[in-house]
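Postdoc handover notes: sequence design on the structure in folder B. Input tokens:
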């Protein structure tokens, strides 16, 4: 993977949507490998967002709640340990799947808080939104227009989200003969702007063959809370799908 070509005014690029094989059954690489790949590519940090109990999780759903959480977040813990060792910030998150394939990126919680709230496991979309907000967290409607076998119906949930994943780099063709699904990103941009919701960008990365997507800032993030505040307040940041750069309203930067 070549180094990412960063914009000079926004040199701090963060991956907001990343999976590990420890937490996601579809993850193809260990957390340590993922973190090293991002460091070598020039990223400023990563957010681990493995698939939770409602999605393609790698952890046995029949385990007791606290034991399930301990195993599920091993991807994050391993990534954090390697990130601390090599100097790459790693932030906590997860991807929540509701119903048949409706996905949300969740940030701003703690694992200890989750252990005290097993009702999360049965919470629907409105209840999830309320619970995450109760701890000061943020909910992003992930790839709202994606079409796939595991998605029974394309639906959007802007009323239960703090932002929209405008650009999912996984929708672009990354191998010869692959289909270009960037139209799904274009629809997500319109959804966000029509509802005055902030947009984010990430790669939906499952391996070390990086797509190059993410959200970039002028200054480094201090914490996941710092990230959430910048996004919620529509602060100065740019987005990339790994091919082009966009302002935070989704307009291409020439």
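Designed sequence:
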């Amino acid at each position: 993977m070549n180094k990412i070509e960063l914009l000079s005014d926004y040199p701090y690029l963060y991956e907001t949507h990343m999976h590990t094989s420890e937490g996601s059954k579809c993850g193809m690489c260990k957390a340590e490998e993922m973190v090293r790949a991002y460091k070598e590519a020039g990223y400023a940090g990563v957010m681990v967002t493995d698939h939770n109990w409602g999605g393609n999780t790698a952890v046995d759903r029949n385990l007791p709640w606290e034991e399930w959480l301990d195993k599920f977040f091993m991807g994050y813990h391993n990534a954090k340990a390697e990130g601390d060792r090599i100097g790459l910030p790693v932030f906590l998150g997860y991807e929540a799947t509701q119903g048949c394939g409706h996905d949300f990126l969740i940030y701003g919680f703690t694992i200890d808080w989750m252990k005290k709230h097993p009702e999360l496991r049965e919470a629907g979309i409105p209840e999830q939104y309320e619970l995450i907000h109760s701890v000061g967290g943020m909910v992003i409607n992930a790839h709202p227009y994606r079409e796939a076998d595991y998605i029974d119906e394309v639906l959007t949930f802007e009323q239960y989200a703090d932002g929209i994943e405008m650009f999912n780099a996984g929708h672009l063709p990354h191998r010869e003969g692959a289909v270009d699904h960037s139209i799904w990103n274009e629809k997500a941009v319109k959804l966000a702007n029509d509802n005055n919701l902030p947009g984010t960008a990430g790669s939906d990365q499952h391996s070390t063959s990086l797509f190059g997507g993410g959200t970039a800032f002028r200054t480094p993030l201090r914490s996941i809370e710092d990230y959430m505040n910048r996004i919620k307040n529509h602060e100065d940041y740019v987005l990339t799908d790994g091919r082009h750069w966009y302002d935070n309203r989704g307009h291409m930067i020439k």
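Context for whoever picks this up: Strands lie at 12-18, 45-51, 90-98, 102-107, 138-141, 163-168, 199-202, 213-217, 237-241, 245-247. Don't rerun without checking with the PI first.
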